[in-house]
């Protein structure tokens, strides 16, 4: 879980994203005032910074990133940009060795840059970027120090952009419609990169691709297939590891069906009641693959 360290009185007041950085500003500093918070907004409020006013009715984009750690080392992103009633799909991937060291973080920032590039292409002057990884906004707004080549390049790109950017955080995988579409686009990308080794026509094959798409989360989750719970079996359950403050995920997979059917099946089988011993916060995730359009849809709800 990210912590934000706000230094009100210290060598260089500001917001830091690690205790080590904060400690350098306050250690042995007479009268130092500082505090840690779970959100950037709380840290800003502590420092008396006014919240940004985001205009209504301007183009916006949702982005999300991923990393494939099973052999390929490919990072990617999925999302879309809305300009009026027109939607532009954003997907891409890369395998640069240096960039891949940042795993899914590279996918997140590449998605944000893709949104800005599309905005420039369309002549858009202002853009809202919806994101779930804090660094997307924090690096672009110089709230975090860019210590790696990839993040430094991201900051430079955003600084040179002539598009006026506004950033709006959405909690990862919590039922925001645009974020659900960004997740689905990421699964599309994982599918496209791995169909050469998979027969992609049933829930089992979908589960294999989803495992690849979510592999980077294994540092935070225990990944279980066909987990017995309630009246039936959950296709995939991600249970947070000890001391990880993120919700458990119960995932139901469908093909040529609907995401609402998948969500209802989770509820009917009463999965959440069974896994409540592992975590108090649970998200229900329904994913459907349409074999004709070769696209995924996603629905995310709190249990």
Describe the protein in words:
There is one protein chain. By secondary structure, the chain is α+β, with helices and mostly antiparallel strands. The protein has 10 helices and 13 strands. The protein has helices at residues 19-26, 40-46, 97-100, 104-122, 135-140, 149-160, 177-194, 203-213, 259-269, 271-275, and strands at 4-9, 14-16, 33-37, 60-68, 74-83, 86-94, 126-131, 164-169, 221-229, 232-240, 248-255, 282-290, 295-302. The strands form 3 sheets. A 5-stranded mixed beta sheet has the order 6-5-4-7-8. The longest helix has 19 residues, at 104-122. It is globular and about 60 Å long. It starts with a strand and ends with a strand. The model is unreliable at 194-200 (pLDDT under 50).
Give the CA-CA distance, first to last residue.
21 Å
Please write the string of helix (H) and strand (E) elements. EEHEHEEEHHEHHEHHEEEHHEE
General form: globular
Largest sheet: 5 strands, mixed
Q: Could you state the oligomeric state of the chains shown?
A: single chain
Helix content: 25-40%
> Mean of residue pLDDT?
78
Strand order of the largest sheet: 6-5-4-7-8
Radius of gyration equals 20 Å
Structural class label: alpha+beta
Catalogue the unreliable spans: 194-200
List its salient traits.
303 residues; five-stranded mixed β-sheet; 13 strands; 33% helix
Topology of helices and strands:
Elements: E1 4-9, E2 14-16, H1 19-26, E3 33-37, H2 40-46, E4 60-68, E5 74-83, E6 86-94, H3 97-100, H4 104-122, E7 126-131, H5 135-140, H6 149-160, E8 164-169, H7 177-194, H8 203-213, E9 221-229, E10 232-240, E11 248-255, H9 259-269, H10 271-275, E12 282-290, E13 295-302
Parallel strand pairs: 4-7, 7-8, 11-12
Antiparallel strand pairs: 1-2, 1-3, 4-5, 5-6, 9-10, 10-11, 12-13
């Amino acid at each position: 879980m990210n912590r934000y360290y706000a230094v009100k009185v210290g060598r260089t007041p500001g917001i830091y994203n690690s205790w080590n950085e904060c400690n350098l500003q306050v250690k042995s500093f007479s009268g130092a005032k500082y505090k840690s918070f779970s959100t950037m907004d709380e840290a800003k409020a502590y420092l008396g910074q006014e919240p940004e006013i985001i205009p209504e009715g301007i183009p916006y984009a949702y982005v999300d990133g991923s990393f494939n750690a099973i052999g390929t080392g490919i990072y990617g992103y999925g999302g879309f940009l809305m300009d009026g009633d027109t939607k532009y799909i954003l997907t891409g991937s890369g395998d640069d060795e240096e960039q891949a060291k940042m795993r899914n973080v590279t996918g997140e920032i590449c998605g944000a840059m893709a949104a800005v590039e599309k905005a420039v292409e369309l002549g858009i002057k202002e853009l809202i970027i919806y994101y779930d990884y804090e660094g997307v906004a924090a690096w672009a707004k110089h709230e975090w120090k860019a210590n790696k080549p990839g993040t430094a390049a991201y900051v430079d790109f955003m600084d040179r952009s002539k598009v006026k950017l506004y950033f709006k955080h959405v909690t990862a995988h919590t039922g925001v419609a645009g974020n659900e579409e960004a997740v689905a686009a990421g699964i599309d990308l994982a599918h496209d990169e791995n169909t050469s080794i998979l027969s992609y026509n049933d829930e089992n094959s979908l589960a294999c691709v989803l495992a690849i798409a979510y592999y980077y989360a294994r540092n935070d989750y225990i990944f279980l297939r066909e987990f017995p719970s309630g009246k039936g079996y959950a296709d995939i359950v991600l249970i947070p590891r000890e001391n990880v403050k993120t919700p458990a995920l119960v995932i139901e997979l469908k093909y040529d069906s609907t995401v609402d059917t998948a969500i209802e099946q989770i509820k009917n089988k009463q999965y959440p009641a069974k896994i409540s011993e592992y975590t108090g916060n649970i998200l229900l995730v329904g994913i459907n693959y349409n074999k004709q359009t070769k696209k995924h849809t996603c629905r995310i709800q709190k249990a």
